[in-house]
Amino acid sequence: MISLIDTEGDTIAPYLPSIEYLNFASCNLTELPAALRYLDTITDLDLSNNQIKGAIPSWVWENWKDQLNTLDLSHNMFTTLEKSPSLVHTTNLAFLDLSSNRLEGTIPIPVTGSEVVVLDYSNNSFSSIVSNFGRYLTNGFYINLSKNKLSGHIPASVCSLNKLDIMDLSYNYFDGPVPSCLVERGNLTLLKLRENRLHGVLPKNIGEGCKLQTIDLNGNRIEGTLPTSLENCQDLEFLDVGNNHIVGSFPSWLGTLPNLRVLVLRSNQLNGTIRDLHSVSKSNISFTSLQIIDLSTNHFSGYLHSELFEGLKSMMNNNNDMGEILEHNYTSTVSKNIYQDTITITYTNFDFILTKIQTTLKVIDFSDNSFHGPIPKSIGRLVSLHGLNVSHNNFTGQIPSQLGNLTRLESMDLSCNHLSGEIPQVLTSLTFLSWLNLSYNNLSGRIPQGNQFFSFPYSSFEGNAGLCGSQVSKQCDNPSSTTPKAIDHQESKSLWQDRLDAILLFTFVGLGFGVGFALAILSRTFHRVEGWICKHFCIHMYV
After folding, report:
1. Which pTM value belongs to this model?
2. I need a surface site. Which of 35, 52, 448, 462 has the fewest CB within 10 A?
3. How far apart are CA 353 and CA 330, in angstroms?
């Protein structure tokens, strides 16, 4: 057991050992130990995950400016920096983490001679940064200023950061255009500008040798078309430009990117058909690594031809491995660190933010467009699919029985279309299916009985006048002797809950997506809400 006597005064100095590395992380400290200021040999200090409040004292920079190499004060309750320095002069500081505090004012920029600089100021309330900060951070390698209150244009001096590898400025109030150097130079591995107020068109002259692996521009006001020079980013794995004002047709040329795993184009103004999804198949590359594709809430139209899905080899992979996390490993002079991609997906009709994206998670969302014709049978070949949403379109014909091959499917939404015929009995074999929405179509006949279908409520089937069965008010005439007996309400509720719990346990423990746990809480609460939304917003399709 270590005991620290916190005593003021110079008399303590002769009795302190020559400490270079000190770790007081997660020690329930509520204030900085006064004795620290007398440690004149300290190089690495970790006081993270405590409850230290008040100001970060100026003596931290004054007393240790020549020897301090790493300083981690993250996850505390600091509110300000004493004397509010905009520049902090140090000699060797390479790692500074002030994230997850309550710091306000101007971001302190270290002026240091270190060859590589890692800065994390995320999750604070900083409101400004010196405009020429780039000239002081020429060796900046990792800069995370996300989730603050920064506004105005992204300073042009960011182009001076020649060694920059990862930059995250997301969840701020930056406006103006995306600085061309951040994209066209191609030196970055990760660029995240999510949820700002950026506008204008994207830089178009991306050179060969582009190293970008992640581009996340979701939730801005970006206009124009996607630059075709993105083809030069052959390492690109993650592209999210959702919730902007992007126009043009489907960028089928992205299919030439061999490592592209995540493509999010949701909530833009894209239009036309996507018959070209497989047009690059001649080169044997056609979105072969794609695991998440979100085209929802655009103006796409036309048929979805069966060959469109032939190139999605990753979704046809039926292996049982747990997969890896989409992440970026970066090594500074002081430590090895990990930065993980995040994504917002619509799952069971609600938006979820996934902070860990596993390579085994496979999702297709084509909802809220104007696709018509039959649902392609070839979707049934995507046997590793977990989520399928083609709701709010104009699909006709029957539900393909081939969807019964999607044995890993957890969520399927075909609602608000013009589908007809009977619900295929084979869908009862989808034992992982915890969410089903077939409402507001023209389906008819007996609702299949067995396995998961006992658990699905009225809202999964409402708006289909021709359906009959225990889940809806209309009972079937001349029930088949082979049909399982109807169960009373209480028994159905119990069976539904038992099966759902089993599914969610598998999802949460086995797949690790974080979705299963959320489903357990939300599925019961919002079934009725979903039904109401669909009833009021897609009933016009039948007028």
Report:
1. 0.85
2. 35
3. 23
